[in-house]
Amino acid sequence: MTKSLIPDQSHLWCDKTMQTLHESSLSKGLFPEDPTEFLKSSSVLLLLGEHRDSAQSSGSPCFIFNKRSRKVKQPGDLCFPGGRINPRLDRFLAWSFKMPFSPLSQWPYWTYWRRQRRDENHSLALLLATSLRESYEEMGLNPFAVRFLGPLASQSLRTFDRILYPMVGWVKNQKKFAPNWEVSKIIYIPLTYFLEPKNYVCCRIHFKSRDNVIQDFTALTYEDRSGTELLWGVTFRITMAFLEIIYGFKPPSKESLRVVYRTLGEEYFTGYR
Known about the structure:
By secondary structure, the chain is of the alpha+beta class. 29% of the residues lie in helices and 30% in strands. The N terminus is likely disordered.
């Protein structure tokens, strides 16, 4: 595992990750729901890359998260860039992504998907187009700086009646991002940090505006120069699904973890207005 994280071997690490994601996708249908049910479907980009600040990343691959601004739902949460499918625009982008030099056409398994997974390849192209367009809009990500590594299984976001379809990408040669009004800042968390059980907590959340429900979640805490961040919810589940496929890693049971407390009011579901 350690050798695969050495910076000058990032290309080999991406190759191995692509292969593992592809092999995992062979045993199951990735799109049991219909992504073209546009009112319920969203696509997100699980974004990885190297942090330019070696003091923070130690040269290892990092997960790259957006921190949601106070103007949107779920303010303060860490998330991957993404959003709803735009039927007209994203269909056009999906078509263009099948051309040479696009992230999809350079993916080594695209030929297999076109020939062997004809019922799914159009959905894959559409979902990748959505995730890259949304990433460009939210954080200024250059779509052509992204190396597509593969798709993950969908996740249900029950609170907002959404189905999220995660795409995995590696960003290279982009020194800066340009967050829009939806994003308060960009957070890099080294991948190796997720493989340490001591970094996990049980997050006990009091949903103050929802019948005072109290619920426990396994979560990850991360402290950087600007404070402590908490990763939980569907973004946490997507991250754990990736780590289980690539490294066979599962987080500790929440019953064994120290408890941290959080209270969420109605503004969590509406944003601050």
